[in-house]
Design goal:
39% of the residues lie in helices and 22% in strands. By secondary structure, the protein is α/β, with parallel strands linked by helices. It binds nicotinamide-adenine-dinucleotide.
Length: 484
Amino acid sequence: MKRSEPHQHSARQYINGRWETGATTGIRRNPSDTGEVVAEYARADRRQAERAVRAAADAFAAWGHSSSQRRADALDAIGSELLARKDELGLLLAREQGKPLPEAVAEALRAAQIFKYFAGEALRSGGETLDSVRPGVQVDVTREPVGVVALITSWSAPLSAAARKIAPALAFGNSVVFKPSELVPACGWMLAEIISRAALPAGAFNLLMGSGRELGATLVESPQVDAVSFTGSAAVGARVLQGAAKRRTRVQLEMGGNNALVVMGDADLERAVECALGGAYSWGGQRCTASSRLIVEAPLHDAFVARLRQRVAALRVGHALEKGVELGPLVDAPHLERHLEAVRGAREEGAELLCGGEALNQPSRGHYMSPALFLAQPQHRIARDEIFGPLSCVLRADDYEHALALANDTPWGLVAGICTRSLAHATHFRRHAKVGMTMVNLPTTSEDHHVPFGGRKASGYGPRAQGRQAAEFYTVLKTGYMLA
Ligand code: NAD
């Protein structure tokens, strides 16, 4: 196995157009090989967070009134550099977060595409003019940037999920304070390094790395922060919502799920197995759209389970940079332990383990686990709680109505999929699944980057991310009246 020389990055904060050291220093190790330090990074304290917010507020006067062409050019330049450096970014992402290299490069490409898309949106943003109900009066409805936005992200998609927030925020003229997860500081730093070359006014974009509890709370409760967009767990999301409510700050929460994939008796078996495999185990299941509940109609149940078990057991687990590896490690030791515990808990509750679910030794010391597949009952915790790892379960359904009821019997509502040849069932499912996104004959993880993304119930709060609709969160409406 030949790998490029591991390179240790030194990641600093970016505040008011300057690179800064932090109050303390943190270390991020490669989850595929814990002997390798990926980055030494600056950890900000509360005072630095307050300075970043002040810098963003000061920069807003210029950036919030900049021309749409200037914003479009800046975003286009960021997108071009991400595109040109996608292999380098993908390599860093694979080393820092642990997703296999091809998937990491694909994520870097997606981040580039998101910036390119919002470069166009900066030019297209506008309002509408209406006739007033009074003679001689003109009415128009225009959009303005919100102000200073704090963007707090998780570790699972450190480039694309960050781009999904940073690009629309900047496109519509907001100033940004970006706080990535402590587990992926170097990805946040490299993104910031690229953004720092896009000729934004000093302070229009700031990067803070460090403790979510300390920095997150400072950002959420700052009187100078006008909006908070958060991606992460439902538990922390609830805290963010409470903090923001105190000051009536605008909030967008993108949280997790335990997403269902329904497989009907008439489905193409091989396609359904592909959808389940990709939907449940890509990125090691560490994605909010993962289908951890596979609800299979009785006639296809046994054949589906047999084929999926074979495929899951054959998945190649290993170092994220190794050629042919399909599943990298868990992101860190506590996550590995949490998933091994979930396997033990599921067995104690009576779920039947069909394969996997064990810690694995590999040539390099990392947080490896064999992908697990269970037969479960709807009341089992693996069928109810968010999983966020290489673990899924099959539930048996008597018929379509039963399958739909099982799919909707959850506090979550991010995405749901169905594999079927029946147009009637596909159409009904698209209308009646209580989620933000539906998929027919596709993995639940296969979303596009130019249309709304997000969920309902415990999975999402506030306006959707992505697409034209991103303007709903990143702008405020103003209605103007004029008598000529
Ligand atoms: P997390 O909730 O632990 O942390 C998310 C972010 O919040 C991190 O940057 C963290 O530092 C910060 N944070 C921690 N405490 C905070 C506080 N008190 N105030 C403000 N911020 C705080 O989540 P995680 O482990 O990083 O990510 C996994 C979760 O993210 C999963 O639940 C997953 O489903 C979800 N996720 C959702 C989406 C989506 O788009 N819906 C995408 C990716 C991940």
